[in-house]
Specification:
By secondary structure, the protein is α/β, with parallel strands linked by helices. The protein has one domain: NAD(P)-binding Rossmann-like Domain (Rossmann fold, 3-Layer(aba) Sandwich). It is about 40% helix and about 15% strand. It has an eight-stranded mixed β-sheet with strand order 3-2-1-4-5-6-7-8, sandwiched between helices. Helix 6 links the parallel strand 6 and strand 7. Helix 1 crosses helix 6 and helix 3 runs parallel beside helix 4. It starts with 6 loop residues before the first strand and ends with a strand. The relative contact order is 0.14. Bound molecules: NADP nicotinamide-adenine-dinucleotide phosphate. The site of NADP nicotinamide-adenine-dinucleotide phosphate has 29 residues, from helix 1 and helix 2.
Length: about 240
């Protein structure tokens, strides 16, 4: 392996937006590890993409952390350095009738543990080394349904919307903790728009490729800390209100 080869971990890389993001990063020359929950699907997707994979339920924070450590060890044994890009594209939608006054503790916990807690676990495990190295990018799939401005949090799907509002708060808070890009570490959230994936359904207006485009751009763009911005929510390469 080339000693300067960049590498990335893409959660949710077994299908949908994560798959498209992984595909583009591989085309851009990255060595990629995808993570999915279902072993067979992750294996098949990795085979098609030509990358490595691990299957783990990210809601199990101990197992998830262990897998991330193992990926780091595997990368090091392949001559790769500190992780360059972490894409968090895993996620679940909450049940149709999950209004605050109707949903349950179990549904709340399921959604939060996957959509928000696992985001913390991944970043807390992997990003300290990236920050230390004064490099690295974290891009997290949020959603318009988590925005506090506009109709994002106008009711319904409470666990999902609030988990994504939490992701937005997480990104903003972390960006301040890490110097808003001045120290070489970038963290951003994106709204992919409504896309044709298993989550978005077959009638969504955008393709998965279109939905993944901004995440790929954030992971690979030139960044000049004197004029470019990080620590924000992006949609179609533009900054949008949280
Ligand atoms: N599609 C949209 O219209 C849309 C709109 C706004 C935001 N988003 C966000 O974009 C991200 C990607 O969405 P998508 O449409 O690509 O979803 P998707 O097609 O349903 O794919 C979900 C991915 O997450 C993984 N995953 C789910 N639960 C997991 C768990 N417990 N442990 C490990 N992996 C798990 C799945 O792995 P398996 O294949 O193993 O199940 C799969 O790779 C999500 O965060 C979603 O909230 C999507």
């Amino acid at each position: 392996m080339h000693p300067n080869m960049k590498w990335a971990i893409v959660t949710g890389g077994s299908r949908g937006l994560g798959y498209e993001t992984a595909k583009a990063l591989i085309l851009a020359g990255f060595f990629v590890y995808i993570i999915g929950k279902d072993e067979e699907r992750a294996q098949q997707s990795a085979k098609t993409l030509g990358c490595k994979y691990r299957a783990v339920d990210v809601a199990d924070n101990e197992k998830f952390r262990k897998v991330l450590k193992e990926i780091n060890l595997d990368a090091a044994s392949n001559g790769l350095g500190v992780l360059d890009v972490l894409i968090l594209a895993h996620g679940v939608m909450s049940e149709k009738m999950s209004k605050t006054l109707r949903t349950t503790d179990a549904e709340w916990r399921r959604t939060m543990s996957i959509n928000l807690d696992a985001v913390f676990t991944a970043v807390n495990e992997l990003a300290p080394a990236m920050f230390e190295a004064r490099s690295g990018r974290v891009v997290i799939y949020s959603a318009c349904l988590g925005r506090m401005s506009g109709p994002g949090t106008h009711g319904g799907l409470a666990p999902y919307r609030i988990s994504k509002a939490g992701v937005n708060a997480f990104v903003k808070n972390l960006s301040y903790e890490t110097g808003l890009g001045a120290r070489g570490f970038l963290v951003d959230a994106i709204c992919p728009g409504h896309c044709r994936t298993d989550m978005g359904g077959p009638d969504a207006p955008r393709s998965a490729q279109e939905g993944a485009e901004t995440a790929i751009w954030l992971a690979t763009r030139e960044f000049d800390p004197t004029k470019d911005k990080t620590g924000l929510l992006w949609e179609d390469r533009k900054i949008v209100d949280w």
